[in-house]
Amino acid sequence: MIEMKNVSKQYGQSSVLNKIDLTVDEPGIYCLLGRNGAGKTTFLKSVAGYQNVTSGQIKVDGKAISTATLDTGVSYIENFAKHFNLPIWKLLRIASEVNAEYDYPFATEMMERFELDGKKKFNQLSLGMKTMVSTIVCLASNRPVVLLDEPVLGFDAIMRVEFYEMLAESFQRHPRIIIVSTHIIEEIAKTIHKLIVIDKGRIRFFDTLQAVEEKAFSISGLKKDVDAATANLNVIGQDTVGGLVTSYIFDYPPKQEASLEITPLSLQDFFVQMVGHKGGIKV
Amino acid sequence: MKATLSIVKRLLASNKISFIVTAVVVLCATTSGDSAVALSNGNYTWLLAVLTPFFFVFYDFKKLIHLGASKKDFYFGALVSYVGLAFLVSLLNTGIHLLIDPLNHTQTVINLMAVCGWMENNVFFAFVQQAVFLLLSMVFLHVLLSMQPHWYGWLTDIILVAIICIFTPIAPLRGLLAGFFKVIMFNPNALAHISICIGVSAALSAVGLTVLKQKTL
Questions:
Q1: CATH number for the domain including A230?
Q2: Mind telling me how many Å the CA of A139 is from chain B's nearest CA?
Q3: Beta pairing, strands A194-199 & A28-33
Q4: What SS3 class is residue B12?
Q5: Measured between alpha carbons, how far is A22 from A57 in angstroms, rounded to an integer?
Q6: Which of A67, A41, A53, A57 is nearest to A147 (CA)?
Q7: Are A161 and A242 in a shared domain?
Q8: Confidence of residue A73 (pLDDT cuts 50, 70, 90)
Q9: Distance from B83 to chain A by nearest Cα, in Å?
């Protein structure tokens, strides 16, 4: 369980996390979405105890998390993480030796499935392969909380599909909290249970994908018709083209009328409206 | 415990460069035959104690954490490695001092074990005195290097340089500095020396733990 209470993080004058209150209490695969510089990495590093927050408190399974926590129970891997320049099989073996909970059979199985040559040294691998090794190490750690920062960076399309399968399989073997930050929204949608949208250091959305399917819509039509239909609804964005207006809502949609075109929003469009426009909804 | 021992194994295995550099220097260092005195090659085994903390702090720490090691296991692993290496280096230098140094009949061979006065006690005590002094040096270096990313690391550097610069030219302060080194290095009382070195090492380890608790990644 992750509890964040009033968590803020500042680098000098720049506020990266801004009074975040968040509780993740159920095992599941969570997708952390946000634009570049939204605070995703800072969020993950803070939960992992890799850095201290400026104010507020983070707890994982009741244990306060900071750099002073010598054993956090969190496994975090950053993109471009560097490892010892050793053969992959040896890296996985060392990881299993330094962590008693490590799932070594899972790690070796994944190494074979992704056709990683165990004899190849880490520095000889491509960027995608390096990331895959880091991801396997992190997922096999079996810690109660696993944080993956941009794990699909450098993956080709096939590797990405296999990664999502690995993620789901790892969760089925050991249900726990897995948070994955990514920019490739639609691909991961089938795998995740909940979505966390972060923007400008604030949590803008934390709910299931079902909530997005039920409530995220675009409503197009003449301005007066759209304004009337959305008057009491939660409008998260608006586009105007000539006399036509499209309003984006996160709310139960109004009744279908001939003058209005009501369409469900894709996850990507929903995300863009949440963070790409001024305004938005409050959680 | 298994994790700590695995970390010890990994730390020592990835310390190859220190071992090789030390071995090369020990084997290749020579003193001019014209000189009346020669430095014992055993002295250069201390190089291992100087180089090792650099690798542990700047190379191994982050990589082990990425492999899932906890900070606690890393730190205990590093301390256990320092203890092992201190005794290994001491054993090598004692062996060289006893077996190889006497082979040089033409020059007076200077070994730090003799310079520090440890050989005035029996060989076993000299071996232990050297080991605990090296342990103290490694732990001190580890703590000092771990501090470097923080402001207090730089402050400590400045203070250390200032102490040497200011204390050396002023006689009463120089006496104080000499007294300090007499206690931790040139102490003729073996038991007192061993106790002080272990005590200071333990105190420095506690400081190192505090520094580790502030270490970001």
A1: 3.30.70
A2: 10
A3: parallel
A4: helix
A5: 11
A6: A41
A7: no
A8: confident
A9: 20
pLDDT at A280: 42
Question: ∠ at Cα B56 (B54, B60), nearest 5°?
Answer: 120
- What pLDDT digit, counting tens, does each position of B138-148 carry? 999 999 999 99
Question: Measured between CB atoms, does A275 come within 8 Å of chain B?
Answer: no
Q: Is B83 helix (H, G, I), strand (E, B) or coil?
A: helix
List A261's β-bridge partners, or say none.
Answer: A220
Question: Which residue has better confidence, B188 or B6?
Answer: B6
Residues A154 and A220 in one domain: no
Prediction ipTM score: 0.84
Spatial distance between the Cα atoms of B16 and B63, rounded to a whole number of angstroms: 16
Q: Which residues does residue A11 pair with via DSSP β-bridges, in sequence order?
A: A14
Show which of residues 9-48 on chain A sit within 8 Å of chain B, judged by CB atoms: 45
Indicate the helix (H) or strand (E) that contains B202.
Answer: helix B190-214
Name the minimum distance, in Å, from the CA of A79 to any CA of chain B: 11
Task: Give the pLDDT score at A240.
Answer: 86
C-alpha–C-alpha distance, residues A139 and B65, integer Å: 14
Strands A28-33 and A177-181 come out as parallel
Q: Are residues A80 and A184 in the same domain?
A: yes
Taking an 8 Å cut-off on Cβ atoms, the answer to whether B6 and A102 are in contact is no
**Residue range of the domain that includes A226:** 215-276
- Same domain? For A194 and A220 the reply is no
The type of residue at B144 is L
